[in-house]
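USER:
Working in pairs, take the chain set out below, taking as long as you need, and write a paragraph about the fold.
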Amino acid sequence: MGRDVSPFSDIVSLWKIYRLLRREKPDIVHTHTAKAGAIGRMAAFMAGVPVIIHTFHGHIFHSYFPKWKSRLFSQVERFLSKLSNAIIVISKRQYNDIVNIFKIAPAQKVYTIPLGFDWDAFDKEEAEIDIRKKYNIPENKKIITIIGRLVPIKNVSAYIRIVRKIEELAPDSFHFLIIGDGELRGDLELLARQEGISDHLTFTGWLHLSASVYHQLDLVMLTSLNEGTPVTLIEALACGIPCLATDVGGVGDIFELYNSKSFIDLNAPGQVAKHVIDILKTGEKPDSVKQSRIRSFYSAKRLVVDIENLYLKLLSHNNQRGR
């Protein structure tokens, strides 16, 4: 099963998964991502699996595709929700989108279960890179970063324009990183040259991120048009690194635990630039209490308990119906 739609291979995948489920007879099938969620749920329904669950880690109902295609995907997901016993979303904003805005599934089928992380493993891992040494960044310059795929939905061009404003207000005070890669890298490198900030901006490609890498950064930004719950923001804040982000997806849930004034207004890059400079000038960052709150809310232990409780609840309901 590949990421892109391929009618022949997708039908083959559906048939093979169906046969596997018929043979193994699981009590629960739990799917993730759009493509696997579609094929997996159809196969599970055909095989008579008692409990079928799907998790939305994000959604593609706006800002990804033309309106006609977004409407088509919405219709497909409404059909798939009818095959599902439960839908899991990972933030309050996403719950509202799925239930009220796009009406993908009724409220009684939708459960909000935030992400969870193994913070002990995250903290123990050693950094594979010394960022200042590798990219020749002077010690007197703060490092501002955006992390993610270089694709349209991430709106990294907005970050580049904010970078230019920051350089106008405080020249040679910061160095900027774009951590990630993707189809727009060439276009974004050209935009950086056109904006005259190439000397202050480094495209690193993908880096393996751990707590020891985040501790080398001074501020993390996110300019996306749509998101699920951005892992990079959670990880950065858990390490005490301040963040600024657009108010999309689960960002609001994260910032409730941090600072609700940390949103980016994409229509006012100059104001965002001033906010960035103020944050780094004053040394504003999540204190130990906020870091602990974020780590507790997004813990792997909490996630396991939430998922286990949902599984038991759905199995109990199914057994009661079968009597």
Observations:
- The longest strand covers residues 51-56.
- Residues 15 and 247 are 41 Å apart (CA to CA).
- The domain at 7-116+300-322 is CATH 3.40.50.2000 (Rossmann fold).
- The mean pLDDT is 92.
